[in-house]
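Summary for the funding panel

The consortium committed to producing paired sequence-structure records for every protein in the target list. Below we show the first two records in order, beginning with the earlier of the two.
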Amino acid sequence: MNVINAKRVGEVISSNTTSFLAQCIKDDTNILTLPQAPYFGSFVKAEGEEIGFDIIAVVFEISSGSIDSVHRPTAMNLSRAELRNQQPQIFDLLRTDFSAIVIGYIMNDKIHQTIPPHPPQIHDFVFSCSSNEIKNITNKMDYLRILLNSGTSTCEELVEASIRHAYAARGNDRAYLIDVGRELSNLLKDNYDRLSAILRRIKP
């Protein structure tokens, strides 16, 4: 994978066939803040340095908390600026994680929207996908079926958010939304309520 200019957003700390959990990487230029997590519904890729392919996924959950069970955060009634000035060590005790649903993989520059042969390995780096990568990934819409069948508690919202990221990557091209609407109508032809809920959300 060409990681030049790619934004590294996390490191895999747990993985399975269909999803992975990554810990966000702290910005060395601004250590007095929480790491910036990728957005809900955004497209990311885990660099398969040793397995020979990159794994594509969509972020479905973001959480922040303590780095361990001992240093539990408590309310301090201080603004962010006051925390940085008075309690800067706090930020070393916090972490942000995100979970992502695997929607495919890239091998030899070819995109496969199916379960990869192997999940990402622990400590593989995770990068945000560029606009061009998102366009290439979402030219085929098999990813919608994967997300619809993911079983997450925010499934409809996740589908809507991923579509909006793909839509934005195309410069808000309405033709793409029309194509997505047709695909969703086919996938959800037996579930009108679910279909209409998603279509309402993606309406520009």
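The next record, for a separate protein in the list, is shown here:
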Amino acid sequence: MHELALAQGMLDIALEELARHNCTRLKLLRVEVGALSGVVCESLSFAFESLVKGTVHEKAVLDIVRIPLKLRCGSCQCEFEGEHGPGEFSACPQCGEVLGHTVLSGRQMQVTWLEGE
């Protein structure tokens, strides 16, 4: 389960940032998870909860924002949301092309916000 390693990495990032601002307790950690990231959000939540349990951060909230797959057609340049599979094989709604799309968003997994006290 690579979600445990991801949750640990996110928590490490958050704690480093909190320390830089003289905060001692994490309240909120917001992350964006793209449709193509390969992350199972439920597993990520479970891993995060397991890591903070019994610590001063136990009441911290993990807010997962799911980012849809956004593509640009290689033929007509139309931008559209792809399906939750290999985006390069989603049919363009404008011209019907199936191959050669560019992924604009949906691969990311990043910490975007945190709150502490």
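Regarding this second record: The mean pLDDT is 93. The beta strands are 26-34, 61-67, 70-72, 79-81, 102-105, 109-116.
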